[in-house]
Amino acid sequence: MAILECSDVTMSYEGVNVFENLSFKLNRGEYLCILGENGSGKSTLMKGLLGLLKPTKGTICYADGLTKNEIGYLPQQSPVQRDFPASVYEVVLSGTLNRKGISPFYGKREKQLADANLERLSISDLKNSCYRDLSGGQQQRVLLARALCATKSLLLLDEPVTGLDPVVSGEFYELISDLNKKDNITIIMVSHDVKQSVRLATHILHLENKTCFFGTVGQYVKSSVSDQFINS
C-alpha cells in the first residue's frame, strides 16, 4: 500500500527550479535513498516532504492514514544543537509533542513511549545524561529515538552519519536497516554514500541538473545515471 506519492512535482529555491516534474510512489516498508550532488535539490525536497515548502507545481500526498505531524524526522545538526543543555530523556520525550494534544504535561503514555524507544536503541543507560556531553554517535541515537516517538511508520533522515567515524557510521546504517526490515518502518534518507545506499535501500531517487531518476536499486545500478557515482 502506498504511503507517499509525488505527482509532477516541481520545486524551486530562491526563484530557480531545482528539479522539475518529479513523480514517484513509495509503499509501506520500502527504503528510499535520495542521492545527488550539492545543490541538486535534496534538502529542498526534504522540506517539501515535511510540508515546510510548497511545490511550485504538482502534489505531495501521504496515504495509509499518515499525516505530516506523524512523520519522524532526523535533521542535520548544527554546532549549537549539538551543545543543547537538556537531558537525553527530555530530548527523546519531546518527540511525543504531537501525540499529547493540547495538554501542557507529558502523560503516562508519552513517558512509556520514550522509555521504550530508549530501550529499543540501547541507550537506556544514557537516560539521565546531558545530551551535549554525548559522542556524535550517541547523539544520533538519541535523535533517532526522538524521531521514533513521533511515528509508527515513516522516518525521514537527512544525512544522518555526517561527522561520524566509519565504524559508528556502519553501526548506524545497520540500525536504520533493522528498523526498516524488522519493524516495517518506511525510510527516506538523504545520503552522499552511494555504496551504502545501493547496499541497503530498496529504491533510489537521484537528483541531478533538474533531472530525476527514480527506480529500484537494481534499475539504478544498470542505469547510466549511476555510472560516475558507483564506479568513481
Helical residues, percent: 25-40%
Strand order of the largest sheet: 5-6-7-3-8-9
In round numbers, the mean pLDDT is: 89
Number of helical runs?
Answer: 9
Radius of gyration: 18 Å
Q: Which band does the percent of strand residues land in?
A: 25-35%
Total strand segments = 9
The N- and C-terminal alpha carbons lie at a distance of 36 Å
Low-confidence stretches: none
The description of the largest β-sheet is: 6 strands, mixed
Q: What's the overall geometry?
A: globular
> Which assembly state applies to the chains in this document?
single chain
Write a brief structural summary:
This protein has 232 residues and is α/β, with parallel strands linked by helices.
Describe this structure in words.
This protein has helices at 42-49, 79-82, 88-93, 108-120, 136-150, 166-183, 194-200, 217-222, 227-230; strands at 2-13, 16-27, 31-35, 57-62, 72-74, 154-158, 186-190, 203-208, 211-216. With 232 residues, it is α/β, with parallel strands linked by helices. The strands form 2 sheets. The protein has a 6-stranded mixed β-sheet, with helices on both faces. It has a 3-stranded antiparallel β-sheet with strand order 2-1-4, with helices on one face. It is globular and about 50 Å long. The model has no long low-confidence stretch (mean pLDDT 89).
Descriptive terms for the model:
alpha/beta; 9 helices; three-stranded antiparallel beta sheet; 232 residues
Topology at a glance:
Blueprint: E1 2-13, E2 16-27, E3 31-35, H1 42-49, E4 57-62, E5 72-74, H2 79-82, H3 88-93, H4 108-120, H5 136-150, E6 154-158, H6 166-183, E7 186-190, H7 194-200, E8 203-208, E9 211-216, H8 217-222, H9 227-230
Parallel strand pairs: 3-7, 3-8, 5-6, 6-7
Antiparallel strand pairs: 1-2, 1-4, 8-9
Helix pairs in contact: 4-5
